[in-house]
Design goal:
Strand content of chain C: 5-15%
Largest sheet of chain C: 3 strands, antiparallel
Strand content of chain D: 15-25%
Largest sheet of chain D: 5 strands, mixed
Helix content of chain D: 25-40%
Order of helices and strands of chain D: HHHEHEHEEEEHE
Order of helices and strands of chain C: EEEHHHHHEEHHHHHHEEEHHHH
Number of helices of chain D: 6
Radius of gyration of chain C: 21 Å
Shape of chain D: globular
CATH class of chain C: Mainly Alpha
Distance between the termini of chain D: 48 Å
Chains: A mainly alpha (about 170), B mainly alpha (about 325), C alpha+beta (about 375), D alpha/beta (about 180)
Oligomer: heterotetramer
Number of strands of chain D: 7
Helix content of chain C: 40-55%
CATH topology of chain D: Beta Polymerase, domain 2
Shape of chain C: globular
CATH architecture of chain D: 2-Layer Sandwich
């Protein structure tokens, strides 16, 4: 999955006499165990997002099934589908309405780069959600499979807290 | 004198702890229960999901506190507290067993209803204070719902009060000790002499429906009708404000279940008269809470007019009739 | 039970339902002028997922456009690609082997069931019941498994080719499909018991959102919306394409015109689709899946071609104006939900918001298909 | 058969009824293979634009039965005939004939009953001042279709109650499906 190694803002805090590292770690692990995504589907990928939340794949195992319809209660924005120029301000507002800390996932090729709709003569779409949002995890696919979304959530957990649910079998 | 104050403080602390723990773990129970009903595991990875509520709590507490521009700051801040506090206060008078009761009051039933009516107020303030159209609509709905369902609920409670002759919850529960045939729900009650009460199951049913509606649970969750009003009255609440609403909701459920248990199901008494104690009480309330969860994940939502019609056209006439007949029966037997 | 009598007050406010709203199933916006809980006037604003498929159809060659059709309506993608290949085959006069036609019908009907199952779950979720969605999606996953084994994708299929198919089905697929049919039949019975009979559910739908046959005609509504208004219109029967004339199936029609009628139509349609699948499996002929003679470059002769098919949402049409080159001169997509949605503004006037949203759910909207 | 009724009604409507072209030119091309089409293309380019008139088409080859081309002024009367005969509006769209400096508006009609008859009405208007009367008074469903056609082609529908962009942004001043459109 396309995670980037951007240093988390917590690492930039200058060290002081009192160390909060342990507390920070605990807080981050708490956060990553309860990503509440925003109920916000745009196109095809939203169906796979719903499929991920439903019976067979069940995002709830990782505490991430609480889809909140209000951005105030959400931590994670999954941009699932093509972002059009008409919709972009709306998505920006939704992102701004989410309280910190918040994360963004670009689900599917459209949200990554415009996908199949970036063609000559296109006037309507934004070429990827990262044109106006700080995307944390990119999940390619058209649409991505539910397993890919689950892996994306696990990657985001790792990115936020540096904590792994399981040992990486490839490294061991 | 000092001891009384000390006792009261201890009681309140225990009540808060009990309410908070209950609320936190009931959320988990709800999520796991929903999962079971929906053929999926639910949150189960960290210690069978037992660490899920702390994780949610940590997350909610460390989230940014946002007050939307244009909101009434004071109302916006006070509403979640008002949703949570009365629920905790109600715990003070609930007898968990013959000995475990913080303060046994003569007007315990009345006090709980007084506090319960705060719940509607909190929703109104939340919806109004957040200056959100969905919020206001949800608030208006929730208030009309609370008002409509308090009436049949109170009328039903009067039948109990008439039968037992007291408003003290502890006494009401004590009168039902012995076995399930002594419970108020049972049509033939024998605690102090033979009493024929064929209408008590109806009272129980009305009370059960009303407590579902009073706690804003599905199928009566019009205040936070997710598919229509986004998130209802707490649309603008994030972080712990939302958390308090959530906890308040579950604390209210516990209160509702406790009240049903005490009024109808014999409180801490064993169904067969053996080893009465707090465990029976907890068993009963958690069974009731499970049925609440079950109902929530089974039924679709009613409409606002369907809901009000149910109360004013069906439940209130039935409960009034019920009251009248019960009074007549009490006179005869 | 319809709503109580509404006494209008002078004060109204505007409520924006969408673009991000749980009930709109995507990015649709309805500007509602509200009087309390009542809708005085509604205006739908579209275009939030307008991706300009039609211009793509003109800029790209015909095979290149094929994947687009499944992005149009991701729930019933097979039916839409079917329309495209049929249109091109009609324009370029390509013969299709019989086996391919049968497999196409098989796939389209499987896809129709999966689409209706998803709609069923989402519709009940609109009404506040969350659990049926889970059951429906679980059943849907079984269908997706079948289709994935053959087509290679879960949602946005690009399985049909001009003249035939990309991949032949094998015995495993046929056996697995035969095994899934009784399972789905059982599920449909379960949904009937669980949802259709539920009193709250019926009270919320009976008599709510009336759409009369005349209104359907004036707005060009098709599919289950028209069939719920007593019109026995189904392109598969009225204007048989592919090999649909070989199959024995009924058009479910309900005359109540309300949301429950539209719900019932779709539930019955799943049963009919199962019947078609059974027959297609029985009749499946042997043979090739691609024609022997097929032009290397698809260049339909100059002219104007129209092809209508019945998708899960109604009559979908493709108009191709060809100028004899490998790109279309004009590529018009007539999407059924566009017409179905256009009557929402008029139909929801005077309704309460929760009834209006229940009606919106019963229209079975897929927003990218409206906006194209 | 409704087909004959409608055809006769259209023939009566048109002021100078053209003879029905039984074997239209486009039809002949449809039966040819692609290779032949290539050769003929050079010839066809000089073909004049289609004249107004009623055309009976082969449903199997084109997907519709009756194809009428008429002046914008006759549109309302023609649509009224279809309305009386219980047709429903499938869609409205446009075609940009840039070489002929004309915009064509295409109306698709169909029927709900089994007497299947798809009717296509075309009307052409000059490209520099495209004006066509609205049919949204007869078919309210045309409202959205006409707005969409206005979005994409800039055809102005006279008398339309609410001709603002529907699919394009509210302030859009471009018409993407015109052949000379550059984003």
């Amino acid at each position: 999955m396309g995670t980037q190694n951007v240093p988390s803002p917590l690492e930039e805090i200058p060290s002081s006499v009192v160390q909060f590292a342990a507390a920070d770690k605990l807080i981050n692990i708490g956060r990553v165990n309860s990503f509440w995504p925003l109920t916000f589907g745009i196109a095809c990928c939203a169906i796979e997002m719903m499929a991920t939340g439903c019976a067979r794949f069940d995002m709830s195992r990782f505490g991430a099934e609480v889809f909140r319809p209000s951005p105030r209660q959400a931590d994670l924005m999954i941009v699932a589908g093509t972002v059009t120029k008409k919709m972009m301000p709306g998505i920006k507002v939704l992102y701004d309405q989410m309280p910190e800390p918040k994360w963004v996932m670009a689900l599917g090729n459209c949200a990554i780069s415009g996908g199949p709709f970036a063609f000559e003569g296109q006037y309507s779409i934004v070429l990827g959600a990262d044109e106006f949002l700080p995307v944390d995890v990119y999940i390619p696919g058209c649409p991505p499979r539910p397993e890919a979304l689950l892996q994306g959530i696990l990657d985001l957990e790792n990115k936020v807290s540096g904590w792994n649910r399981w040992k990486n079998p490839e490294k061991a | 004198m000092d001891l009384t104050i000390f006792n009261a403080v201890i009681a309140v602390v225990i009540a808060i702890a009990f309410a908070a723990a209950n609320a936190a773990y009931l959320v988990l129970a709800e999520r796991r229960g929903a999962g079971r009903i929906q053929r999926r595991p639910g949150p189960n990875v960290n210690l069978f999901g037992l660490l899920q509520p702390p994780a949610d709590g940590i997350k909610l507490m460390t989230k940014q506190l946002m007050i939307p521009g244009g909101a009434d700051k004071a109302l916006f801040m006070v509403a979640p507290v008002l949703a949570m506090a009365p629920a905790i206060m109600s715990f003070v008078t609930i007898p968990f067993s013959n000995t475990i009761v913080a303060h046994s009051m003569n007007v315990g039933v009345l006090m709980i209803f007084a506090f319960a009516s705060f719940g509607g107020m909190a929703i109104l303030l939340a919806g109004w204070g957040s200056r959100n159209k969905y919020g206001v609509m949800a608030a208006v709905r929730a208030v009309s719902q609370n008002i409509s369902y308090e009436v049949p609920m109170l009328i039903t409670v009067i039948t109990i009060v008439m039968m037992t002759g007291t408003m003290n919850l502890h006494e009401i529960a004590s009168l039902q000790s012995g076995g399930f045939w002594n419970w108020n729900i049972f049509p033939v009650s024998m605690s102090d002499g033979f009493m024929l009460q064929p209408l008590m199951p109806i009272s129980f049913l009305i009370f059960f429906i009303c407590s579902l509606a009073e706690t804003n649970r599905a199928p009566f969750d019009l205040g936070e009708a997710e598919s229509e009003l986004v998130a209802g009255f707490h649309t603008e609440y994030g972080s712990m404000g939302f958390g308090l609403f959530f906890m308040g909701e579950y604390a209210n459920i516990v209160i509702g279940a406790s009240l049903i248990t005490i009024l109808f199901l014999g409180g801490w008494g064993c169904p067969f008269g053996l080893y009465p104690g707090v465990w029976w009480f907890l068993l009963k309330i958690y069974l009731l809470i499970f049925s609440f969860i079950w109902i929530r994940w089974t039924f679709p939502r009613t409409t606002i007019y369907g809901l009000l019609n149910l109360s004013w056209k069906i439940l209130i006439p039935i409960s009034l009739f019920n009251l009248l007949l019960t009074a007549g029966l009490l006179k005869v037997f | 039970m319809s709503g109580p009598i509404h006494i209008r007050s002078d004060e109204t406010f505007t409520l924006n339902v969408g673009p991000q709203h749980p009930a709109t199933h995507g990015v649709l916006r309805v500007k509602m002028e509200m009087d309390g809980e009542y809708i005085v006037k509604a205006e739908t604003v579209l275009g939030y997922i307008h991706r300009m498929h039609e211009l793509m159809g003109e800029n790209r060659t015909y095979p290149q456009v094929l994947p687009n059709l499944s992005r149009l309506d991701y729930l019933g993608a097979m039916g839409y690609t079917h329309a495209h290949v049929l249109a091109i085959e009609r324009a370029a006069s390509i013969e299709v082997p019989e086996r391919a036609e049968y497999i196409r019908v098989l796939m389209v009907e499987l896809n129709r069931i999966s689409s209706h199952l998803f709609w069923f779950g989402a519709f009940v979720m609109d009404l506040g019941g969350f659990t049926p969605l889970m059951y429906a999606i679980e059943d849907r996953e079984h269908i997706l498994d079948l289709m994935e084994a053959v087509t290679g994708s879960r949602l946005t299929y690009c399985y049909f080719r001009f003249g035939g198919l990309y991949n032949d089905v094998d015995d495993d697929f046929i056996n697995a499909t035969r095994a899934v049919i009784p399972r789905l039949r059982k599920s449909l019975k379960k949904y009937d018991a669980l949802v259709t009979g539920n009193i709250i559910f019926r009270k919320r739908l009976e008599g709510i959102g009336p759409i009369s046959a005349e209104m359907c005609r004036k707005y060009g509504a098709t599919g289950p919306v028209a069939r719920g208004a007593g019109l026995d219109f189904d392109v598969r029967k009225n204007e048989p394409y592919s090999v649909y004339s070989e199959f024995d199936f009924d058009i479910p029609v309900y005359h109540e015109c309300d949301s429950l009628a539209r719900y019932n139509v779709r539930m019955d349609e799943m049963e009919q689709s199962l019947r078609i699948i059974e027959q297609a499996l029985d009749k499946l002929p042997e043979g090739p899946i691609m024609p022997k003679k097929k032009p290397k470059l698809i260049k339909p002769p100059k002219g104007d071609y129209y092809q209508a098919v019945e998708t899960a949402r109604g009559s979908f049409g493709i108009r191709i104006v060809s100028d004899g080159t490998k790109n279309a001169y004009r590529f018009k997509l007539r999407s059924p939900t566009y017409s179905n949605m256009s009557l929402f503004d008029e139909a929801c006037e005077g309704m309460m918001i929760m009834d209006a949203l229940a009606m919106m759910g019963s229209l079975d909207l897929v927003i990218p298909e409206i906006d194209r | 058969m409704i087909k004959d009724t409608i055809k006769q009604a259209f023939l009566d409507l048109l002021p100078d009824p053209e003879p029905i072209i039984e074997e239209p030119v486009v039809e002949a091309a449809a039966n040819d293979t692609a290779e032949d089409g290539k050769k003929k293309k050079a010839v066809k380019k000089e073909e004049p634009p289609r004249v107004n008139g009623v055309l009976e088409c082969d449903h199997a080859a084109h997907g519709y039965d009756i194809d009428v081309q008429l002046e914008p002024g006759e549109l309302l009367a023609a649509v009224m005939i279809l309305d009386k005969n219980d047709f429903f509006l499938e869609s409205i769209t446009g075609v940009d004939w840039i070489k002929e400096k004309q915009l064509e508006s295409v109306y698709d009609f169909s029927r709900y009953d089994f007497d299947q008859c798809r009717v296509v009405i075309r009307t052409r208007t000059p490209r520099d001042n495209p004006n066509i009367p609205t049919i949204s008074k007869i078919y309210p469903g045309a409202n959205w279709h006409e707005r969409e056609t206005h979005d994409f082609f800039g055809i102005k529908f006279e008398g339309h109650p609410h001709l603002i962009p529907l699919l394009l942004p509210e302030d859009a001043d471009f018409h993407p499906l015109l052949k000379d459109f550059k984003p």
